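Task: complex structure prediction.
Instruction: return C-alpha cells for all chains below.
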Amino acid sequence: MDVSQYLEIFLDETNEHLQNLNTQILSLEQDPENMDTINEIFRAAHSLKGMAGTMGYKRMQTLTHDMENVFSEVRNGNIKVKADMIDVLFQCLDALEEYNTNIRESSDEGTNDNGALIKRLNDIMGGDSDDSAAPSGQAPQAQAAETAAVGGGFVGIKLNENQQSVLSEAIRQGKRVYGLTVKVQESCILKAARAFLVFKAIEDTSEIIVSDPSSQDIEDEKFEQHFSLIIVSEAELNEVVKAAKSVSEIEDVSGSVLNLDDVGGAGQTEESHAAETAEPVAAAAPAETVQAPAETPAAAPPAEAAQTPAPAAAPAAKKAPVNRPVVNRTVRVDIEKLDTLMNLVSELIIAKNSLVSASAMSGNSSQAVNEQIEYLESVTTSLHESVMKVRMVPIESTVNKFPRMVRDLQKKLGKKMELYMSGEETELDRTVVDQIGDPLMHLLRNSADHGLESAAVRKERGKPEVGSIFLDAYQDGNNVVIEVRDDGNGIDTKAVKNKAIERGVITPEQGEAMSEKEIINLLFNAGFSTAKVVSDVSGRGVGLDVVKSMIESLSGEVEVKSKLGEGSTWTIRLPLTLAIIQALMVEIGDEKYAIALGSIQTIEDILPSDVKLVQAKEVIQLRDLVIPLIRLNEILDIPSKKDPEENLVVVVVKKGDKLAGLVVDELIGQQEIVIKSLGKYISKCKIISGATVLGDGEVALILDANALI
Amino acid sequence: MNEIEELRPVGETTQFIVIKLGDEQYGIDIKYIDNIVRMQHITRVPKVDEYLKGVINLRGEVIPVMSIRIKMGLEKDVETKSSRIIILKLEQQGTIGVIVDEVREVVTLENERIEKVAYDSKDENANFLCGVGKSDGGLISLLDLNAVVLESV
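Output:
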C-alpha cells in the first residue's frame, strides 16, 4: 500500500499526539491517580501505535505498543505510577520524537531499536504486576473472557470506570445492555463505510457505549473483519441484530444480553470483586444467545448482589456525559491555501481602495454609491478579520513543550525551578507561532542557566529555594506581548561590560559612556556569552543575537529589563498581522509614504521656534520629554515643499520606550494598506519595510519607524 | 521579418526582442520576457543604487524597475512616447522591469548566426553582452540579462 500521500498527515498527527502525551505525562507526575489523564495517555499511545503500524513503521509501533501495555496495566490498577516510570516514559517520548524526526527528514524511521527502553518498559510491567499480586478472582474471569473472545469478541472489550457506571446505571434503570460482534464479509472493500452504516442502524434504537476497536479506528479502517460493540438499548436484541444485518456486505452479527456482572467483569476492575459471588453467572453469560427469551428476571439477582459498589458508581455516572471528550469539528487546511485566500483578500482591499478614490475623484458621486461603498468597506474589513482569524492559532501548540523542557533542564542543571505559564490561549498568525518557538526556547534556557541561581545561593539570599520562571502572553492592542520573566540574579551589567571590553566589542572609553540599558543591549551582539562555564544548555555564544534577529524577521521587537539580584524580564512584542495594517499616509515633497499606525504615538503641530538644538541635533520638548527630530525629507533626499517659517507637522513614533519625531510635509489620512514586499532585489534600503498599492494604482512606500529611530 | 525563417524548426533558432537604447540595437532573449508595458509613474525608492529607478504597480504586484542605460554607463533615460518597460522573469532575481527607449520587433536568429563575444576586461559594456546576432536589419548586440540585472558591488 502506498502511504506516502498520508505522510504529512501522519507527521502532523504524531506531533500532536506526542505533544499531548508530554503534557499528560507531566500532569500524571503531579497527580498519579488521575484516571482521566491515564485514559487520555492510553488513547494517545494507542492511536500512535495504530498510525505507526498503518504507515509500516515497525520500530515505532513496537515501542508504542509496549508503552500502551504499560498504560493498560496502570489503567487496570495493576501497577502504580512511580517517578522512575515517568522518567522511562519521557525517554520513550524522546525516542518517538527521534523516529518522527527521522521520518520527516528521510521518510524512514531509522534503525534505532531502542531495545533498552523496551526492556525497561517490560520490567515495569513484569516487576510491578508481581507485587500487586493480581486478585485471584480476576484470573478465571480473564480466562473466560479470552475463550469467549473467539466466539463473541465483545466480551473482550475492556470498560473504563465511566463506561461501567453508565452501563450499570442503565441496567438499573431497566434498559437492556447487549454485546454485539459484527463480521464484515471478506470481500468488502469499504469496511469503514459498512461499519458506519451498522453504527447508524444500531443508533436508531440504541446508544453505543463502547466499541472495539475504537470508533476512530473503525472509521480509519483499522480493523480486520470483526468489530464489537456494547450498546444500551430499549429494543429487543433480535431487532437490533436484524437492523445491523440489514446492512449489505455484513456477513454475520452475533449478540447477547449482558447483565450487571458482565459489565463489571468485562471491565476487570475492583468493582467486579464485590460481585465475585455471582461469578458462575458471569461466566455463563456469554453463552446466553439471542434465542434466550427471558433475560430480565435472570439479570435481577446479580444486580442486587452488585448493589454494594453502586453508591460509588452513581456519582460517576452522573459525571460521565460531562467527561466525554469534546470532539472539535475541524478541517485541516494547507497553509498555502490560506495564503492564497489572504492574497485574494488583499487584492479585494486594493480594489475597494481604488473604488473609494475613483468615486472621490469623479466628484458627482451619488448618495447611493457612497452608501454601497461604505457597505463594501465594512464587508471587506470583516472578511479580512475572518481570514486573519482563520490563520490565527493559539500559541499553546508551541509553548506546551516548555514545561517538559524546564523539567529536563532542572535535572541537567541541578537547579530547582518551576515554570509558570499564562495566556497560552493567546492567538497569533500561524507562521509567527511556528517560528516563535526557538527564540522562546532560547530565552527560557537562558533564564534557567544564567538567570536562576543555584538552590544554595538562593537560600543564602533569602529567596525561595525553587526558582520561578514565568512565561506570560497577552494581547496588547495590535500587538501580542510574550514575557519571559525569572526571579533569578538579573543581569550583572558590570560583568557584561567587562566581557564586552575583553572581547573587543567595545572600547573601555565607550564602556564608560554607556548607560545600563545600552550595556544590557550588548547581550544581543553576535558571539556574546557571559556564562562562566560553557554548558550544553547555553553558553555557546549563539542565542540572544539569534533571538533578536528571528524576532525582528517577524517584524517584532525584543527588550530586556533587569534588576541585579531580583531577576530579569524579556519582553517580545509581535504584530498581530503581517499582511494588512492600518497606516497613516503622509506626504513629503511630491512623494507619499505610509507609517504603520501601531508605531505612532501622537501627531504634533510644532512652531519652528520650538525646535531646540542639543549636541547639534534638533529636538523638541513635549510634555517633559525631549524628543529628537528626524526630518524625513533629508533622510529620503526629497526637497521639502514647505516654507521653513510654517509650523512643522511632527509624527511622534515609538520604538520600545524610545520616541522620535518624524517631520513630514502633510498628513493625508488613515488607510488600510496591504503590505507588499519590495523583493530581494531592492533590499538595501533599510528604512523602507515594504510597499503598498494605493487606490489610484500608484505605489507608496512604507516607512519602518523602528529602523529610523 | 523574414517569413521563411519562421518556418524553420525551433531548437536551432532563438527568438529575440529587438530594443533600442540610443542609436544601438540590442536583443533580449524572448524566453525571459514576461510582459512589455508602457512607461508609467515609477515610485522612487530612496537610498538605493542610481540605476534602480524605483517600483511600479503591475496588476497589484510591486515590481522593481531598473535603468539599463545607467547600469551600462550610458546617458540617463529620456522618457518619450516610445519608451517602454520590459518586465523580465529571471530565475535568481525574480521579476524585474527594465526601461528601454523603444521596442522594435521580434527576430528569429539561427544559432549559427550568433557570434560569441570575447571577454574584454577593458570594455565594460562588452560584459553585458552574450553575443552578437546578424540579422537582415543589421547587427544586434545580445544582452546577457543576468549580468545586466546583477547587483553592482
